[in-house]
Design a protein that fits this description.
Distance between the termini: 45 Å
Number of helices: 4
Number of domains: 1
Strand content: 15-25%
Bound molecules: zinc ion
Shape: globular
Structural class: alpha/beta
Strand order of the largest sheet: 1-2-3-4-5
Helix content: 40-55%
Largest sheet: 5 strands, mixed
Radius of gyration: 21 Å
Length: 158
């Protein structure tokens, strides 16, 4: 009896450790503000059209007179290039990535990767920080639809 419960206990703890490991290796970065908040702030500043729809139903994050712009957080740096190039192709505008850096200290490396490629592959890139969000003293941004306004306990969610 004792042996059996020991085995069960061991099995459970192994499963637990496995589950933990699986859970922790799939790292989903949490962002304090929605991508859309940065997108609106930048696009308004540049007199662009937010979520411009192409004939094939894909959407450009922001279409300006010169640029087809794709916004992304650092973790989607590679994907952002493909999207910008495609939106440029679809609209005839110059492709541009606007990379969102919530923490410049360690996220700058991702911007630099895109910058290197932009010099070779003929597209533009710039980065924005939280400065563009006009944060108030509580760290909430200008966009009332942003998740920084949802309950403060869920800031760890997506
Ligand atoms: Zn916000």
């Amino acid at each position: 009896m004792k042996k059996l419960s020991m085995i069960i206990l061991l099995t459970l703890s192994t499963l637990g450790a496995l589950a933990y490991e699986t859970y922790t290796t799939i790292k989903i970065p949490s962002h304090k503000h929605n991508e859309m908040s940065y997108q609106i702030a930048w696009c308004k500043k540049h007199n662009g059209i937010i979520e411009y729809e192409n004939p094939d139903k894909t959407r450009v994050d922001c279409l300006t007179e010169l640029y087809a712009v794709e916004f992304d957080f650092y973790n989607k740096w590679a994907e952002s290039i493909g999207q910008a190039l495609y939106y440029g192709f679809m609209t005839g505008k110059r492709p541009k990535v606007v990379l969102i850096l919530e923490n410049q200290k360690w996220q700058m490396v991702y911007y630099n990767r895109i910058l290197k490629l932009s010099e070779i592959y003929n597209f533009d890139v710039e980065y924005v920080t939280n400065d563009i969000l006009n944060l108030d003293e509580n760290g909430k941004c200008f966009n009332k639809e942003c998740k920084c306004y949802k309950n403060d306990y869920s800031q760890q969610d997506k």
